[in-house]
Amino acid sequence: MKICVVTGTRAEYGLLYLLIKGLAEDVQISLQLIATGMHLSPEFGLTVEEIEKEFKIDSKIEMLLSSDTSVGISKSIGLGIISFSETFQTLDPDLIVVLGDRFEIFSAVTAAMTARIPIAHIHGGESTEGSIDEPIRHSITKMSHLHFTATEKYKNRVIQLGEDPSRVFNVGGLGIDNIIKIKLLSKREFEKSINFKLKTKSYLVTFHPATLEQSSAKVQFQELLNAFSTETETSIIFTKANSDTDGRIINQMIDEYVSKNRENTVAFSSLGQLRYLSALAIVDCVIGNSSSGLAEAPSFRVPTVNIGDRQRGRIMAESVVNCLPVTQSIQEAIATAFSEDFKEKLKHCKNPYGEGGATNKILNIIKDYKLENIIKKTFYDLGMKER
Description:
By secondary structure, the chain is of the alpha/beta class. The protein has 15 helices and 13 strands.
């Protein structure tokens, strides 16, 4: 059975890592791996090199243009569809496996759907109302044939979109498996790995453009930087934005800020999976609008200050403090995260995305599921008996 996994970003590859490893080690499966998007860009850390240390890549699909405008992103999608269609014709996989909601994956799924290749989609049914990822994710769901969701609520949303309940599986969050199975770095090992000594207090900051919000990424990120003006004896670790519309503006602002504050700040295009998870375990607070602050950080009982609407609609743990993308609101949220009452709440915090096991569940279902005639889908109407 030829199973093709498509990966386009550092974060999504981190979530898929154990699943890819499981597929590679299974004698009943022939793994095909496609790297695309930011993996192939030096600007975003050339993370394809990290993948190649462990896995054979069957195809590298260049699709990112140098522009991060809406026109540039649209052209990248088109280029991706053309390239994926050719690659799928060559590889001829039995099943495509994708995760998430980015435009690179949208290109891959569009090409696979047209080629009548079955698609398995992970982390569907979620909601990010402040980002263009929202409609992309649900579009991928409608083009896919097997669905693996992170919570029961997300499973029900996929069914609400008309997908057959027998093809929708709540397996939990993939990221939790990494937390359980990967040996993380100690604080001293982590500091050595990033060549940076942490101060009394430390933040991990990841901020991406909220592509559907009214105010620009530049305005919102400046409000966040302004919120740090009163911080003393605090180390700030920035991980840079994705190749979304206006992502380069944020990355330029990070570079300028770090150049003026070298004693207490450091920035990375990509920390990589091990260092990023280790950072979550070590820092005192996660700040920004990344999904990792909602899906992984709660497992470490570390507070998350979630800024703006980018993640609005997602299920959140009690460890998350929401705030507006304005300086005062961000500062108030940070103060809440460090309050004694909130620290007490963190002690009993549970991750709503489960306690692990998603990888094995997906592997077992994929191996056993009969793919004959799976391409033809009947729209499942809520409240009506199945035919």
